[in-house]
Every structure is written in C-alpha cells, then in structure tokens.
Amino acid sequence: MHARLPLRAILATASMLVAVSGARADFWADAGAPYKGVTIHGVSESTPPSNYVKDVLAPAFTKATGINVEFEATSWDQMYDKAIKDMEAKTGIYDFVYIEQDIIYSYLSRDFLVDLTKELKADPKLASPDFKVDNFTTFINYFKDSSGDVYGVPMEAFLKVYLYRKDLFDDAKNKEAFKAKYGYDLAPATTHAQYRDIAEFFAQVGKDTDQELWGTTVQAHTGHPSSWYEFFESVAPTFGVYNWGINQDGWSASVDHGGTMNSPKAKAALEYWLGLLKFAPPESTTSTWDEVAATFAAGRAAQGLVYGENAAWIATNADKSNVVGKVGVALPPLEDGVLADAEAGKGYIGYYDGGAFGIPYSSKNQKAALLFLEYIGQASVQADWAVAGSRITHTATYDDPKVQEMDAKVDHYYTLMKDQGKLFAGAPPYPFHAQVREATAPFFYQAITGELTASDALDKMAAAAEAELTKLGYRK
User: Fold this and answer.
1) Averaged confidence pLDDT in the chain
2) Do 52 and 381 touch, CB atoms closer than 8 A?
3) Which residue, of 417, 436, 456, is where some domain finishes?
4) How far apart are CA 284 and CA 203, in angstroms?
5) Largest CB tally within 10 Å, which of 36, 333, 456, 476?
6) C-alpha to C-alpha distance for 282 and 54, rounded to whole angstroms
7) Considering the entire predicted model, what is its pTM?
C-alpha cells in the first residue's frame, strides 16, 4: 500500500513536474533564440542514418529552435573531399561535417575541430539537460582526445556483419545437394573454407537454374578505397592480421622489420578474398559499400559481408529489397585463434564502423551548430533513428520496444551488436591514415585486376607503407 499524500503535496508535486517539463520543452527555443534565422550548413555521406537526419531531425530542430539547417548528403568521395578542403582552406562553408571513425585522428592532429567539451563548459546556457555524454555507447571514445574531451557527437555506429539468405540455406534440396558434395551440413560459415565452399555451391546453383544468383558479394572496386577497406578492416582481421599489419613499435609494415602486412597470414587472406571473385556477381569489381548492399538486397548473392547500417532496410523494406524476411545475420568466418585473440583484447574479428558530426574550427556559426549536435545526441530521438538506420549510439536504445521489435525482424542484428560488438574494432588511431592508404592502394588494385599476385602486391604495399611512414617522420 502507498501512503496517502496530502492534497497540497500532490498539487505541489504536480506543479514541480509541469515546471520541469516546461523548462525542458523551452530549452531549445530559449537556447536557439540568439541564433534564430541563422542557417547552418552540413555535409555527410548519403546513408540511411544521414538521410534520416536530413529528412527528419534537421526539420525538427528548425521547428524547435528557429535555426535553419542545410544538410548536404552526397557520395563518400564528395563528402570527404568537400569537408577536408573547407577545413584546410578555413573557408567556413560547413558548420558541421561527418567525421568517419577512421579519419578522426588525422583531423585532431591538424587541429581541424572544435572541442565540444570545452565549449559546453565555457557557455552553460548552451548545454542541453537532455544531452549527456554518459548516455552514449563506448563508441564515443573514438571521438575523444587524450584528455577525454569530445570532438564529435556519434550519429551512427554499426558492425560489418555476415548476411546470408535464410531461404536458400534452409531449402531442403540445397541442404541435401550441399551435404552430398561437401560432406557436411549447409549452415552459415564459421571458417573461410566453409565460406568458400558455400560461395562455390550457390554460384553453381545460379548457373544450373539459370538464375541471377551468385555465391557471395565482394566489395572489390578497382579504383575506389572501399575495396582496400574491405580487405584491411574486414577480411585481414579474420585471418589474424590486425591494425593493417603495421607494428606500432617502430612503425614497420614488412615482415622483415617486424610488421605483418605481407605476412603469410596476410597473403593467405588476400588470396582467399581474390579467389571469391569467381563466385561473385559481375558488378563486384565496381562495387563500393553501396553497391554491395544493393546487390544483396536484389537477391543476387547468397551471402556477403555487409555494413550493418543497411541491415534493417534490406530485411524489412519491400520497396527497396527483394529479400525481405529472408535475411540471416551472423559473425564473419574466422581462422583458428582469431576469436580467442578478440576475447582476450589482443585482436578483433571485424569492423565496428560509424561516424560523428563535428564542428570545423573554421565554422562561422559554431554555437548554433553545437546546439544541433546536442539535439541529435539527445536520448529521445534515438529509437526511431535506430530503426530507420540500423545504428545505435546510446546504450538505452537497445531496450526500446521499437528497436526490439525491429531486432526480431532483422534476425537479432541489434542483439548481436550489443552482445558481440566488443569483438569488433574501429580503424587504428593513425594520423597518417589517408597517406598510407593512398600509398598502398595502387598495388592493391593491381591485385584485383590480376596484374599482381596477392604475394607480390602485399610485398610492394608493405614497402610503400614503410616508405610513406619514413617520409612522414614515423620511421627512423
């Protein structure tokens, strides 16, 4: 039984709740009042999470604050090029930019970004009571400096996972034929040998039945960094090659100097990955992350490594996907010892991707932009955003009923991210990220086209990486 409260106490409590509610409701209008009519400009990649910001959150923010938002969602190449050129030239075109997890360390080393922690402390009137750093998952740590100050508000975080066609894997004829050919049961692969067998099997099924069906996706564009990223961030780690094969004690890449970029494990990984191309759709050598998602959604591949931001729409949106209700989600296949490395904190099994919005130091509307970043970082907007974009940046979002309902429709992708996310990792904290990628990428592309063997390509890449690191002053 609850004790009865006097009427005066009840009325006082009700008044207090109304006052608090009103104060919270008015925060955005009050904080935004000095900047009403201002237009802030942002740029990001055209992804499901970014498009949700453009279509839903930006208009809602304008309604709440009177601050206009012009948000450009474009290709990855254009987004990166426009943002970095603006920050280098200090032209102040953009007031907030998308910061991919793997490039933040380069931006910090060049003092491109506003320290959000410092700004909120300096002007408490701008600090929303609904924006709390402690609400975020540990992914926010990628956007902190060495002292713990935050330079970006996470807007997406997801795993690159193994998607497979449950309808094909569960088909009785396929199961019988696979068992007869390979001697074991058809199931989502846990090893690379199994994955290769499955790719071969379904590529043959496609031929035999005259279907547009292949055994696997491969993100193998011959002139775009996405293929380089697929190998170093998603495939090489599953063979036990971590941090791009660069030994941070001495900054070496080659085996001769203590690195692993051209190690036997790395060469086995690249040979395996290149070998999958003969079981993959013809668009694979022109596929970035976007085309891989589209290929799987079109039903053209039985399995693949797909960025999780696409998982929800592929599994549920019948207007865009031909495989609704047929999508299975699993961890990527691994070599022996890799899972143990990840569980011990000595390695990782795949890529924990995502990004944040940060404010360029050159922005002319830093305070208005800071309000926008707080707005998209508040707890109340997270659940619908997570459902729309397969992304979670707040710990509490996992337990929201809307997210749990979607979780069941996406073969428990969100549960996998919550429980197994610790086994994945973002890119290593390299300020020289783009330089080493660009120095090594030409040889990598030549491996895809067949101009170089996997072994020769990695030998040349390791040498090029060390030459670049020497030029940049890391290697002595």
Assistant:
1) 93
2) no
3) 417
4) 14
5) 333
6) 33
7) 0.89
